[in-house]
Known about the structure:
This protein has 17 helices and 20 strands. By secondary structure, it is α+β, with helices and mostly antiparallel strands. Helix 9 packs parallel to helix 14 (about 425-445).
Amino acid sequence: MTALNAPRMIDETLPAPPPLAAIAHLALADDAATRRLGTDLALALRPGDILALCGDLGVGKSTLARAAIRTLADDPGLDVPSPTYTLVQAYATTPPVAHFDLYRLAGDNELDELGFEDSARDGITLVEWPQNAPSTLAAATIVIELAMAPGGGRIAAISASETAGARILRSLAIRDLLAAAGLAEAPRRRFTGDASTRRYEIVEAKAETLVVMDAPREPDGPPVQGGLPYSRIAHLAEDVAPFVAVAQSLAAAGFAAPAIRKADLDAGLLLIDHLGSDTLLDTSGRPVPERYQAAIACLAELHAMPWPAKMPVADGIVHTVPAYDRRALRIEVDLIVDWYLPRAKGRPATDTERAAFADIWNALFDELAAAETSLVLRDFHSPNIIWRPEQSGRQRIGLIDFQDAVIGPSAYDVASLAQDARVDIPAELEARLVAHYVALRQAEGGFDADRFQRAYAIMAAQRASKILGIFVRLLERDAKPQYLRHIPRIKAYLRRTLGHPALAALRTLYQDWGVLDQDPAPRPIRPSDTRS
């Protein structure tokens, strides 16, 4: 095998070639194992990856490439013809993928006509016989050398750049997790991701469907306050242990949380139940009032129960559910000053503006001292709630994405649902949901409705202010502009909430700042920004 020794030639219009290192040497027993490797690789590929497939005739290059393309297309029956005569075949997957077969080439001269540079720049590129056009091999971020094994089957030697190699090793670790669960041959496909670094996969496990949660431990960000990063102050989960602990505690209390089928806590990998695909929305993406009402009833039951601060994980590991304390509430709400206000005004907030903001919010947080507290799931809204019509009672509401749960004002989760950040909730439906929650809690006795309404207004304003900052941060720090489309909705909720008498001073401040005015044009993205 000589692919790694090929000349490192490259067209000057392409990115500089990354150094490659050997990362894995795998035995593939048959075609099925080769196809599984193609799937595992596809789930690790990203735009800009160039996968060079080297080896003699019949060693499985096309078998592996077809499996990868079908995985990227999420279509196991997709026709993937060999491009031996056409030289290249493009697929409108997300991201797009181009499959090159350079067997008939005798150098780099024809690459421009084939569109190799565009494919390498904008999507994923799979190249068979890359040694026939040396610049393709030089540009590769991943090289797989396939050969027949002496005793039967094949051998795959994988080399990759540092970033691509890390992704591939993680994908192979997921396959190891499945093997440990007795599902070594189970099909995998992409499921979804979110605003964080977590991602998910679907696993077809015999007669049931499971989910892989891929949540690598988050490194600490830069210190922002008292030498601590934002995540530590805001009590954001940095590994999967909190998810496991809260899931098990919720399930033990009769709520529909995913069972943990297999866990690798150190790697941040979980195999969990798939609770279903229906949400609280109809097929047009509009809220279904009856489903939201069932969700608010589930929340009322959850808040009526006592919850321990310490929840077991496994093997003696215990997760302490953090308190949603003033420091966490404050650093979250500061996001509107740190991120949204500079975008709206075109300048950082002044010391005077920050002081006025702090005085108002400190007074509001003082009022929360008397609010009821409970387990707060923290992201209790439509993307994280599964509608399970075949079930009854609280089991109709599937709960996911609760790893950041805290003990804090129960009104926060009510506001999270009744002012759903991802879907327009009319004022009438919000009022009906809050009234239903209050009625259910009052029926138990000992529930102070007036105190709750005041806490609800404060927490709704805190959440809306925080989210405005988060969505701008996702744009400017993380280059994720898609969340900006939700800002008009969040501002509409904030206008609605600021009518409560408890928020009179905040309403005046936000009006003076123009927070509720028409959105200005976004500033350029600044990936180097290091704010919290």
